[in-house]
Amino acid sequence: MIQITENAAKRIKLLMEKQSLTEGGLRVGVKGGGCSGMSYVFAWEKAARTGDEVFDGPEGTKIFVDKKSYLFLKGCVLDYDTSLMSKGFVLSNPNAKSSCGCGSSFSV
Predict the structure, then answer these.
(1) How far apart are CA 107 and CA 69, in angstroms?
(2) Domains, in order of start, for the chain
(3) pTM (2 decimals)?
(4) What strands, in cross-sheet order, belong to the sheet with 88-92?
(5) Using an 8 Å Cβ cutoff, are 107 and 38 in contact?
(6) Contact between residue 103 and residue 42 where contact means Cβ atoms under 8 Å apart
């Protein structure tokens, strides 16, 4: 399971409204690269793809995760950071053995 905080849900709803997306949600995944070996990726999707894991959050929000990425993201918490230095979606990943200073990449 991947948990979506209230803060992240509010930001997902706001950003979807700005893009005139009435359905769908946020795709969360991982790809090779980054200073720690793997990087988080985020994209807007109108619907889940075949084989996706779909997680519901507060305020009717949804996130979509492909099966391969889910192996690395299982148990994560998706939040939205509003600090001046690192504004954006952040994942608290219990599977990461280490992560970079900016929090956008990790190793397992």
Answers:
(1) 13
(2) 3-100 (2.60.300.12)
(3) 0.84
(4) 3-4, 77-81, 88-92
(5) yes
(6) no
